[in-house]
Amino acid sequence: MNRLQKISLIYVIFGMFILPITSHCAVDEDQFVVVLDAGHGGKDSGARGNFSMEKDIVLDITKQVGHYLKKHLPDIEVIYTREDDSFVKLFKRAEIANRKEADLFVSIHANASPSIRAFGTETFVMGLHKTESNLEVAQKENAVITLEENYEEHYEGYDPHSAESFIIFSLMQNAFLDQSLRAAELTQKEFRERAKRKDRGVKQAGFLVLWKTTMPSILIETGFISNSNEEAYLNSEQGKDYLASAIFRAIRSYYDEMKAQRADKNNYANDQEIQPKAANKKDIYFMVQLTASSQMADTTKEPFSRLTKPVAVEKIGNYYKYFYGKFDNYDEAKKLQKQCESHFPDAFIVAFEGDNPISVQKAMKSVQ
């Protein structure tokens, strides 16, 4: 059985047993909870530079982010997965966030590369890796599980050296993908515009620390410890402060957006006296989201011109999103996504109930 056949088989098996993910809703609607996760720690040093270790750098940045949040946004409850040089298993980090019913999970790391010239920041959300470089970053961060006893038991047979292992895990965060992407976009915007760091973009890959979180989740790579100039910046007080303040501002913007959305929904429901109703199978459909951009793209030009169907464009927030196809069947949407991958490697499936986006898992359950 070749690699492609293995991946196809995994999709089939996962589709048979997929469970819907309940969208997050905090017990106290007025309390917004953020879990800050300093990567690595204890016997796990993370990436190593010429004179420093990732675990120490990211702990300082994480605690500074928490300090800013507590000082300027007292309505937000801040939870740390670690506040000292201790080793915390990856699945335990997700358990902390789930137990606290967090609204946002932020895992903070520093990157490394065989190339000493690599530099800049990037923010990941859970998903299928689309490039070998994304896969390598995820494999590096996930390899820490080998320091845990009986890790096969906690990660359901995940093999950190197998690309196929990412397929099942990467599908679990789809329910929160849009919100996770928004948090990631805001983070990169702050790094680029305020901290003046190189923007390496928002990416998807299969990170175990994000896998079992039941809320929007992002993993931030604050810079390359393998680059001597960036290692010096990451260890400087000014560098740590700039990065921490950028992450704080991104969380603040995300919090403000979520609070405004919640208020709009509550006001609309009160004005219209809307009562919940059961999902109508006919209202639910799947589309392929090809890409998103901050500037309107010309869909008559490549790569859009290579497609055989019309492309729908919708501006959501500050981004234009490009949708392709419309199906009441997930499998048909999946076939179309596969056809698009050569031109749009980051394309993924989204679901709607009427005009409202819903999780793919919820849609699949509703149309069964």
Descriptive account of the structure:
The protein is α/β, with parallel strands linked by helices and about 375 residues long. The chain folds into two domains: about 20-260, Zn-dependent exopeptidases (Aminopeptidase, 3-Layer(aba) Sandwich); about 280-365, Alpha-Beta Plaits. The chain contains twelve helices and eleven strands. The chain has helices spanning about 5-15, 55-70, 90-100, 130-140, 150-155, 165-170, 175-195, 210, 230-235, 235-270, 330-340, 360-365, and strands spanning about 30-40, 75-80, 105-110, 120-125, 200-205, 215-225, 285-295, 310-315, 320-325, 350-355, 355-360. Helix 2 packs across helix 10. The longest helix has about 35 residues, at about 235-270. The model is unreliable at about 1-30, about 130-135, about 165-175 and about 270-280 (pLDDT under 50).
Name its key features.
globular, 11 strands, five-stranded antiparallel beta sheet, alpha/beta, Aminopeptidase, disordered N terminus, 40% helix, Alpha-Beta Plaits, six-stranded mixed beta sheet
List the helices and strands and how they pair.
Layout: H1 3-17, E1 32-38, H2 54-72, E2 76-80, H3 90-99, E3 104-111, E4 121-126, H4 132-142, H5 151-154, H6 165-170, H7 177-193, E5 199-205, H8 208-211, E6 217-224, H9 228-235, H10 237-272, E7 284-293, E8 311-316, E9 319-327, H11 330-340, E10 348-353, E11 356-358, H12 360-367
Parallel strand pairs: 1-2, 1-3, 3-6, 4-5
Antiparallel strand pairs: 4-6, 7-9, 7-10, 8-9, 10-11
